[in-house]
Amino acid sequence: MNRIEEKMALLQEKKEKAFITYMTAGLPDMEGTKALIKAQKEAGVDVIELGIPFSDPIADGPVIQDASYRSICLGTNITKVFRMMEEIRQEGVDLPIIFMMYYNTILHYGIQAFAAKCKETGVDGLIVPDLPLEEQEELKAALAKQDGAILIQLVSPVSKERIPAILQDARGFVYCVSSMGVTGQAGSFHKEVLAYLSEVKQISKIPVMMGFGIRTPEDIAPMKDVIDGAIVGTYFMQLLEEHHYSVDAAKKYCRDFKVNLG
After folding, report:
1. DSSP character at residue 126
2. For position 88, what pLDDT does the model report?
3. Which of 4, 30, 95, 177 could be bridged to 156 by S-S, CB 3.0 to 4.6 A?
């Protein structure tokens, strides 16, 4: 059981919903990223998705695409993010951290070397939106060999008959995409989102998280009895940008969201 699974088990025991945030690594800079991770931990965030900047982030909307581009312009790369991970683990940050990234970055690094580096630096999980189920075996085997990071599975309203196969060996939690298209489409949840989430919940042996288009706890109120937690990405990135990556602004938003999530 890794840190993500331990956290999910603890939350279920306490009958609490999980609050997961997304932020782009390297913004406002590497030290700023570290400070924001620490602030979110203090504010009660349960898991952080750390976006690894990529030149063609196909699953992301304009806000995260722009953040990724700006981070790349600042010189962020996977080697520097691994170094930052090593530092925050040495500084005592034990919050579960997931890399949200694209497969080309892993291939370029080398699959076995990448899995080993995740273990070495304390990366707990990976979300790879452009890696379909049928092509996951090599990465999953490399991760299993290290007994470290786990691969988080994504499902969407069009997954339908594929959901049982996708979730068969899934670990950590299942990431339910609540709307069609890219990230950041606030309020445009799929019209049958409740039925879809209920179906996933029925099949899944692990916690079910809802992401894409969420800004406030009120956004997920109709789904609260079905899901085990919420993921906020684009809106959180917008908030950070508007407040010039203020640690205090990040803390306030995260603390309020977590308290009102219940």
Report:
1. E
2. 98
3. 177
